[in-house]
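Feature request, filed as a ticket because there's no other form

It would be nice if the structure record came with a short human-readable summary line next to the tokens. Right now we just get the raw output. Example of a typical job, pasted below so the devs can see what we mean:
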Amino acid sequence: MPRFLLLLMLLPSLALATNPAPPEPPTNPPAACSGQSLQAGEHELSVNVNGQQRDFILYAPPSYNGSAQVPLLLDFHALLTSAEYQRDNSGTREVAQDEGFLVAYPQGIDNAWNLGPCCTESRSVDDVAFARAMVADVVARGCVDQKRVYATGYSNGGGMAYKLACSAADMVAAVAPAAFDMIEEMNCAPSRPVSVFAYRGRLDPIVPYSGGPSTPPTGYPLEQITFQGAQGSFNTWATLNNCSTGTSSPSRNCTASNSCEDGTENVLCTARFGGHSAWDAETSWDFLKAHQLP
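Raw output as currently delivered:
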């Protein structure tokens, strides 16, 4: 049984462990780096994407000294919020400080992410290209384990995590979207199976748990989109990851697909009385860090 599912079986509920099991020691020590200039601390950076400046915040914890490769987490903000808000409220900065990885907080055009059918005003915004350029920039600056790049996000940012799983599976090892589901109108053809840890509130008034049509609440007109729902999204990734037809319940709040291709995992955790709420960053990281690119 994958280590993350074993951990979930030990959790009393989705209000998630305050003392998670320590990570297993790596089989091989992290590779060394040389020539990178990144220092510990917070950095406001930008990259050029199709002639447009795109901004992001990079956090390197105090333990980072560039002497060994560390993971990189991309943490995408919600619709109508910002990179700064995500940095201050998602909890990933605090987990990175404890666990010793880098976190990038991208800034979306229109404070939104283009998933294809929504949610920026212009459909020409290429946020997948932005994510790729951002990762390349961080790799050039810092000592990054490129097999351990992950994506997470809240609401529309969770949709962006799904988008990268669909369109940049060669770059992200696993994703952890929260308060969002797959969209019927969004093309998804990942180049390989991708581990997914989805967190949803059953009483979510913004992204209906059961799915259905929705119009994103923006100040500019957008076409209606159709959510697959929490269970529908879970089923989609069970198919994309070539999982068996069976499922298991590693905790009373979570469902997991069985026997997915290449050792990937597909997990849906639901807060019974939860609304449009974010995840527990520590538990999401416990899932993500157990996976790496082949």
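Something like this underneath would help us a lot:
Residues 127-141 form the longest helix (15 residues).
The two ends are 19 Å apart (CA to CA).
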